[in-house]
Amino acid sequence: MRRLHMIPTGTKIDFIGKKIAFFAFSFCLIIASIGIFGTNGLNYGIDFKGGIMMEVRSNSGPADVGALRTQLSKLGLGEISIQEFGEPEEVLIRIQRQDGDEKAQQAAVEAVKSELHDTVEYRRTEFVGPKVSEELFMDGVMAVALAIGAILVYIWFRFEWQFGMGAVVALIHDVISTIGIFALLGMEFNLSTVAAVLTIAGYSINDTVVVYDRVRENLRKYKKMDLPELLNMSVNETLSRTVMTSVTTLVALLALYILGGEVIRGFSFAMIWGIVIGTYSSVCLAVPILTYFVLRRSDDEDEEDSEIEKVEGEGAV
What we know:
Alpha-Beta Plaits; 2 domains; 10 helices; 12% strand; elongated; translocation; SecD/SecF_bac
């Protein structure tokens, strides 16, 4: 039985030799992302800006989300997000916060009710104030920061602190570039996007750990091999697995992006970008950074081997 290889066996790509080019590209990408974020900012969704949430249930079977979106967009209330909520008949309507006080918010609710008439049953209506939205934003930032910190600790204990630094640099690169692409395209940035960023971090570190495992194995196996050569060999040995995993994941995400509808389009796009940039950072950043550290090549097994050789030598004498 023949195995599928997207990368030919025995590939010898000099990733370490191109590390300066990779570092320069990533540096420019991060600077550009920070600059675009500072200039354009993010198009925050209702979760982070505040607004109105209405849970309704269709009286005529499964709700037609597309028709509802078209119908309510004519009201001139700004950003309106509509998605199924639980059963097919139930829909969650989110409307951006209106200019003015509570009366302005209530007027928006009445406008929606006047447009939908008695075609739906109103289950719940809530107002998300600026304080709540600010708390949600800070919680999202805290979640990303804690995830990166936890990953640093995990890599530190599983490998060494040098590996942990390389992994965190790659993760920060992925997060900043994702924020930059959302600022550039003006796509909505909401809680689902934060969830996508956390998923990207998990996916990226999974790829990085696979490569780092091979690096650690080769460090013990080839103690006299030059570090750049050893790192290149480790990346090339795991390259087929990395590319295969990324491509199969991208196929599923592209299907979600094209066929999944408007509700999950932002999440799908963030994941697609994250898979691409995460694969790049795992191979082209996380590993080449190790060349600037002194990596330990001995372990307890080597000490045991030395003791055995010493005992055998004494016996021979």
